Amino acid sequence: MSAPTTFHGWVCHGKDAPMKWEEMKIRAEDDYCVDMDVTDCGLCGTDIHTMDANWVSPRYPLCGHEIASICTRVDSKVQNVKVGDRIGVGTQSGSCHRAECPACSTGNENLCPIQLFFTYNSVWPNGDEAYGGYADKWRGDCRFVFKIPDILSNEIACIVFCAGVATYAPLKRHNVNADSVVGVMGLGGLGHYGILWAKAMGAKVFTMSHNDRKHDVALELGADDYIGTNAAEHLTKYTGKFSHILCTGISPDFKWKTYTPLFKPNGVFINVNLPEWNFPEISPMLLVASQVNICGSAIGSPIEIEDMLQFAAKTVLKPYLPTYPMKEAPQAVADFNAGKPRFRFVLKDLLFVCVLSKYKAGGLSPI
Ligand SMILES: NC(=O)c1ccc[n+]([C@@H]2O[C@H](COP(=O)([O-])OP(=O)(O)OC[C@H]3O[C@@H](n4cnc5c(N)ncnc54)[C@H](OP(=O)(O)O)[C@@H]3O)[C@@H](O)[C@H]2O)c1
Ligand SMILES: [Zn+2]
Ligand SMILES: [Zn+2]
Asked: Where is the Alcohol dehydrogenase-like N-terminal domain positioned along the sequence (predicted)?
């Protein structure tokens, strides 16, 4: 099959500019390239931050980074996936791979200090732009592309490549287990996976949300209890309760002194949230006296993603993922901005979903 030179995707030309479906140049192949036809792409909080230029000035146009797909073509050095496989890619799609890199040489490619490439809003080493998954096709490096386990549908799998691993990896790294009591702050796309993973790891899980309308769905998701964070007095009765708090969302008036008393001795506050504002300062006295470990976590390494996929294949994951046809991406973004997701929107290419279901039923070759 000859390699395509263009693809079609939803692009954003600037904050508040209408998204447009356009034909664009696909990056040139190299020995490690995988081509995929996108079936599903999640709509992540990071997409909104990026489109709205909340962090730094982004490289417009942009489009999506939680991709599940069917593999349509592989280049000569690709061994981990083959044509016809269901495959996915998340936020990261490249790193330096140098032997002298302290991150890449130790399986921590997500922390590579030399060269990080992302699925969109990034430039490949050959100078071509990286575009994302609100699109019909994507091409990228097989070292950041993963085969989806049979038990996971593409609809569920697309989200695990970003929101999934961003919450799974730190919970696993910080040894969440049946003795843990985990607070998950912020019940959006990441928070809802945080609850699912922490429960599957055996922990007791409390949802901490500023939106009391989420009370019932938090319990439906499997949380053991719900804590409204709007009023600090709701929190005091949880003093000394938590071994871990996974922070996926906070309000700008967050105060350390409200939260540090909630930890058991040597508890861990794991931040994965990336708001436009900074955390407040923490006084040395509070840090010393509370002995809380405050840390962050960035997506996940390829090893952590493979580990998560194996874990997910053994777990019955029941996320809530409302879907939109890919052609309605601008409406999905507007609805996300209006706070409507419960909890993650998935954009679906309905033509490919149809092909995929026939393929799975043994009726049709996907290619
Ligand atoms: N570290 C990583 O590797 C990584 C990976 C992907 C995304 N992220 C970042 O993680 C964050 C969450 O992403 P997401 O996709 O889960 O976003 P999301 O679906 O919008 O969820 C974020 C949640 O945070 C809470 N929140 C947001 N703004 C708030 C405010 N002003 N006051 C109080 N609570 C607020 C809300 O939860 P409640 O209503 O329940 O309070 C909201 O549902 C984003 O900043 C994203 O960029 C990080
Ligand atoms: Zn994401
Ligand atoms: Zn590196």
From this structure: 36-150
Supply the DSSP string of 137-154, one letter for each residue: EEEEEGGG-EEPPTTS-H
163-296: CATH, from 3.60.15.10, 3.30.420.40, 3.40.50.720, 3.40.50.1220:
3.40.50.720
Q: Of 129, 119, 143, whose CA–CA distance to 41 is shortest? A: 119
φ, ψ of residue 271 to 5 degrees: the values are -100, 125
Ligand 1 pocket, residue 248 CB under 6 Å: yes
Nearest CA to ligand 1 atom 26: 249
pLDDT tens-digit profile of 265-323?
999 999 999 998 999 999 999 999 999 999 999 999 999 999 999 999 998 778 888 89
Which residue's CA is minimally distant from atom 37 of ligand 1?
186
Cα(9)–Cα(11) distance, rounded to whole angstroms? 6
Counting from 1 in the atom list of ligand 1, the atom nearest the Cα of 298 is 3
Under 8 Å between Cβ of 251 and 228: no
Cα of 143 vs centre of ligand 3, distance in Å, is: 13
Grade residue 94 by pLDDT with cuts at 50, 70 and 90.
very high
Q: Tell me what the mean pLDDT of segment 175-186 comes to.
A: 98
For residue 344, what pLDDT band results from cuts at 50, 70 and 90?
A: confident
SS3 assignment, position 277: coil
Q: How far is CA 250 from the centre of its chain?
A: 18
Do residues 70 and 356 make contact, with C-beta atoms less than 8 angstroms apart? yes
- Identify the CATH number of the domain defined by range 6-147+322-360: 3.90.180.10
Q: Which tokens go with 278?
A: 């900074």
